[in-house]
Amino acid sequence: MQLMIRQNDLNGIIKAAEKSEVEVCGFLFGRREGETFKVGEVYFVTNRLNSPTEFEMDPLEMAKGIDEAERKGLEVVGVFHSHPQCPPRPSGRDLEGMEVWPVVWLIVDGRGRYGAYVLRNEKVEGIKVGIRNC
Ligand SMILES: [Zn+2]
Questions:
Q1: Where are the domains of the chain?
Q2: Residue 56: DSSP 8-state
Q3: Is 23 a catalytic residue?
Q4: How far apart are CA 41 and CA 92, in angstroms?
Q5: Which terminus of the chain faces fewer neighbouring Cβ atoms within 10 Å, N or C?
Q6: In sequence order, which residues have a C-beta less than 8 Å from that of residue 11 and are 6 or more positions away?
Q7: Catalytic annotation, pick one of 18, 23, 68, 70
């Protein structure tokens, strides 16, 4: 399994994370092709907890984003968020979220590091992040 994302899109998330004292979050919309999750669009959603250690996406913005993506023929291939003060690995709370949203979870820290994870057989598994050119 791997996540393919454009450099610009990845940089956009990293920059937003570096600038923010609270966790930034949102969706990765795109298409799944076999074992590859191709990101076509990054969609930021307001973290309504406004917290540096947890996030909860604003439900109205979530619904709006998913509607727009579906109209373009895209699906939710991932959820992203940041850990301003911690390494980019899923927290206990993230694991609960991964059960609710069983897609790729991309986590970035405040220093440009990142990791992508999926839940497989109730275990967290790191997957490769590749850069797509087109
Ligand atoms: Zn987290």
A1: 2-120
A2: -
A3: yes
A4: 27
A5: C
A6: none
A7: 23
